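Per your request, structure below.
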């Protein structure tokens, strides 16, 4: 499974798209999470949001505190946990008056993980976050908003094919040139539903 979603920051110029593909620092394309420590470090709600935000660009503790509406001390603690696990690092430093600002970035564009231990509930966490954000969209919103669901009985190999295509679409969305003033989120879920098959067609012994 992958964790490769990103939360884009707003731009100041509605008509400008950034030339460079995000993020604005060098990082590996893929990192496989192999230890329980890495899973525990990443799959905590605030830390997942931090890593997601860093898909856009490197950021300081203060910037992440403002973006996620968390105290600086809390963000600082979570950054230390992520850094100790090798999931984020300081990618540059900038002198601001008498202080040195540290800009953190994630160590890979995509993290691969197994659905075990702390990673077991990640799909539910992703959908819970999407549902919570959808609930905040004003009823009179006239921009893009789309959500739908279909239940289809298909072979596992076909489901795997759709999963790969959805992940590729998600990465294409994450790599889009930045512009406009609205942050959009793209979320998906492909899962074995508890809904049973519909059964035989009418006229083949089905009750009416």
């Amino acid at each position: 499974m992958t964790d490769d979603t990103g939360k884009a920051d707003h731009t100041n110029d509605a008509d400008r798209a950034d030339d460079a593909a995000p993020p604005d620092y060098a990082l590996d394309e893929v990192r496989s999470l192999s230890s329980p420590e890495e899973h525990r470090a990443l799959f905590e709600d605030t830390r997942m949001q931090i890593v997601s935000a860093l898909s856009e660009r490197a950021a300081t503790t203060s910037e992440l505190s403002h973006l996620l509406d968390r105290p600086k001390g809390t963000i600082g603690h979570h950054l230390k946990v992520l850094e100790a696990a090798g999931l984020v690092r300081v990618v540059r430093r900038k002198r601001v008056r008498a202080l040195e600002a540290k800009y953190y970035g994630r160590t890979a564009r995509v993290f691969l993980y197994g659905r075990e231990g702390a990673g077991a509930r990640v799909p539910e966490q992703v959908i819970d976050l999407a549902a919570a954000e959808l609930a905040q969209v004003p009823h009179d919103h006239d921009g893009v908003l789309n959500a739908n669901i279909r239940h289809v009985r298909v072979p596992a190999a076909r489901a795997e094919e759709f999963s790969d295509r959805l992940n590729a679409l998600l990465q294409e969305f994450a790599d889009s040139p930045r512009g406009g003033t609205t942050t959009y989120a793209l979320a998906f879920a492909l899962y074995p539903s508890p809904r049973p098959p519909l059964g035989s067609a009418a006229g083949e012994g089905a009750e009416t």
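The longest helix spans residues 156-174.

Regards,
D.
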